[in-house]
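Why show two proteins at once? Because comparison is the fastest way to build intuition. When a single record is shown, students tend to memorize it. When two are placed side by side, the eye starts asking what differs. So, the first record is below.
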Amino acid sequence: MNGTRLLRSPQGGDGREGICRVVVLGVSGVGKTALTVRFLTKRFIGEYCPTLESVYRYISNPHDDDDIRLDILDTAGQTTTEWKDSYALWADCFVFVYSITEYSTFEELSRLRRLVESSRHSTSLTCALVGNKNDLVYDRQVTVTQGRQLAADMGARFYELSACDWNQVPQVCQLFTDLHASWRRARGMRDSRQRKSSSSAKFKQAIQKVISGKSSTPKRNSLTGLPS
């Protein structure tokens, strides 16, 4: 049975027990909270406080070593002028959300992405791009093609869905499952490189000791067998 609980604030430190930290980003009104709550509880909420930030801990199966463990930071609607470096530094993964009915929310994501990259001093991000509110297709201002193009530019997985549509709950869940899997693969590759680097360094140290030992051993006279 999965478990979800509200944390008072983003927690620091390394003792996270394999928990992946996810930050949900986007301007106010795009459906960040609706998307997060839909994943966590399978319920939809239409009204919430747009200035409230919350961190939720989600564990799919506490007794399974291969379970999904997430800390999800649902940020308040932010613009570039309200940006906090702590968002980028706290997170392992990012979900960038826009509304397909408002092109300005789509444009803002490129700026938010640059802020994340600047804060982390890296352009390599594990992230997903989500076009929300695809139930309002008649009000569409952002095409699927535009969404896919931005996702390709970001190196992100692309999803277009509606957090308010019960029939799309599987897509919402798949979004976070895919993100966790990408994080786990990236972490595995990073750990593997670190182990190889450590092994290589130890090997070089061992070789150096052998070489140093040989150079410090006194040479012996081939006739007398005594040190020369």
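Second record. Ask yourself what differs from the first in the token line.
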Amino acid sequence: MPTLNPHILFNGNAEEAMHFYQSVFGGEFTNIIQFKDLPASPDMKLDEAEANKYLNIALSVGGTILLSANDVPSMMGKVNENENRSKIAVTAASKDEADKLFNGLSVGGQVEMPMGESPWGTYFAMFRDKFGIEWTIAFQ
């Protein structure tokens, strides 16, 4: 069965965001590549600040990549930070885990539906985190 691993694009704050997600989920960073690690190319001129940004960073938990991310160089424009066509859905193993994830991920964000019993019978929450990423947390 395939494994889905959400990959998130950031406007220069992938490192901050991934450390935030690590503080909630735990795990270790893997597959770290910065733009400065790429071979020099006349088509990709980056200043020192952008050269230190991430081309890829993954958060692995238990040997499985949970999330990966990269920064989008300014020469490529900004990513839409208010995109609302998708959400990262997390299914918790317990109510306590659902509460922990919700309380950690929603800090500084906008809660659309607080953690609680939903009309469809799951313990559920829906929110946008402080980086603009939309999440749902559920426990059945």
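One difference worth noting in the second protein: The chain has three helices and eight strands.
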